[in-house]
Design goal:
Layout: H1 3-15, E1 30-31, H2 44-54, H3 73-86, E2 89-93, H4 96-107, E3 113-117, H5 122-131, E4 134-138, H6 143-153, E5 160-165, H7 177-182, E6 190-194, H8 206-209, E7 218-222, E8 232-236, H9 238-247, H10 249-252, H11 259-270, H12 276-296, E9 300-301, E10 306-310, H13 314-326, E11 329-330, E12 333-334, E13 345-349, H14 356-373
Parallel strand pairs: 1-11, 3-4, 3-5, 5-6, 6-7
Antiparallel strand pairs: 2-8, 7-8, 9-10, 10-13, 12-13
Helix pairs in contact: 3-11, 4-5, 12-14, 13-14
The structure holds pyridoxal-5'-phosphate.
């Protein structure tokens, strides 16, 4: 791409009020934009406890791919623990983005069909694009629309993958996993479920809670949100794991995560029970927030710990967020085209360290800002 075209495209983005910029977060404000849903990532006491236990063991680089010398004993320990919990094979990989992309591009090709929820994550779309598979998008969370696609295409394609997330990042709404799994009785397809926004918040995830892990061919657990870490678990069959280790390019040709990260992930996994209290607090805060939104008559989607306060316009979303930031609330607009036009919003990620008083004050400030601009 020529430099002059790069500059031109960036200028267009700027003129559309849509140019992304990096920012440093002011830690003194109330962070309502984080995905640290259980507060694990920011927990100093937990970090100190972990470092006391493992500080002299950890390394900050694995210095190699897993297939060469990057497969140290702590990884085996972590995967053995995962195998025990999920009763399937597990594979730890460097990120959720990579897990989604690698699975689709490794197992599916131009003869396959991927049926995907319209609002699935970019990594899923990137995987589909690089696989060369045909893509059909069904209406968001709409089981009827999914079944119509299965009815139509299962006569044509032998190799079909259905992809859903369990909790959706932008609306925080929840997929009907049981109903999707039930469709497997009638139609032949593989199922992939991404638990990025449910791991931790729902313990080992919604699929685990609902006893559906055995019915899901690829369960993806990115760890950068409720997991308080980075990296991802792929839960699948032994054969799929073996195949990924032989043909998954993003797994073979990358430096693996260091033991600092792997031991932390294992520590979180083994302590999952300890976080029950946080989950309860989060649930309580979510219910309180819902009530308050109703009381203030705010247009919002609030099905989970992710709350979408709808503004409906890029420019206004910018102004409202800027004014709220001036009042020490760390919030940023989610604009179109990331979300559909007309649904531009503030996306709030709740966590148990936010008090009811803080969220209540914030919602009142939001309402004031909203009213003053419309
Ligand atoms: C649903 C979903 N899947 C996957 C990812 C990517 O995971 P990671 O950050 O581990 O690459 C994200 C966001 O980060 C996400 O929201």
């Amino acid at each position: 791409m020529k430099l002059k075209n790069i500059v031109k495209e960036l200028e267009i983005k700027k003129s559309e009020n849509n140019k992304r910029e990096l920012k440093i977060i002011d830690e003194t404000g109330l962070n309502l934009s984080s995905n640290d849903y259980l507060g694990i990532g920011q927990d100093k006491n937990l970090r100190v406890e972990f470092l006391k236990k493992f500080g002299d063991k950890i390394l900050f680089s694995s210095s190699s791919s897993r297939l060469i010398t990057g497969n140290y004993k702590e990884v085996r320990e972590l995967e053995e623990e995962l195998d025990k919990i999920y009763k399937k094979s597990s594979l730890v990989v460097n990120s959720g983005f990579s897990a989604n992309k690698t699975i689709i591009q490794t197992f599916y090709n131009k003869n396959s069909l991927i049926i995907t929820d319209r609002l699935n994550h970019a990594s899923i779309y990137d995987g589909i694009l690089s696989s060369g598979a045909k893509i059909v998008r069904y209406k968001h969370l709409n089981i009827k629309s999914l079944e119509e696609s299965l009815e139509k295409y299962s006569k044509i394609y032998e190799d079909i993958l259905v992809v859903t997330e369990s909790v959706y990042s932008m609306d925080g709404d929840i997929a009907p996993l049981e109903k999707i799994v039930k469709l497997k009785e009638k139609y032949l397809f593989d199922l992939m479920v991404d638990e990025a926004h449910s791991y931790g918040v729902y313990g080992y995830g919604i699929a685990y809670e609902k006893k559906l892990v055995k019915d899901i061919d690829f369960l993806i657990i990115p760890l950068g949100k409720g997991g308080g870490s980075v990296g991802a678990y792929i839960i699948c069959s032994k054969e799929h794991k073996d195949y990924l280790l032989n043909f998954g390019r993003e797994i073979i040709y990358t430096t693996f995560l260091p033991s600092a990260n792997i031991l932390w992930n294992l520590y979180i996994l083994k302590n999952m029970d300890r976080f029950k209290e946080r989950r309860k607090k989060l649930e309580d805060l979510k219910n309180f927030t819902k009530e308050k939104i109703k009381e203030l008559n705010i247009n919002a989607i609030c099905e989970s710990q992710i709350i979408a306060l709808i503004i409906g316009d890029n420019k206004r979303a910018d102004v409202i967020c800027k004014n709220l930031r001036d009042k020490n609330y760390i919030v940023y607009p989610i604009k179109s085209p990331t979300v559909p036009k007309g649904s531009e919003r503030i996306r709030v990620g709740l966590n148990p360290n936010i008090s009811k008083k803080d969220i209540s004050n914030f919602l009142e400030e939001f309402k004031n800002e909203f009213n003053s601009i419309f």
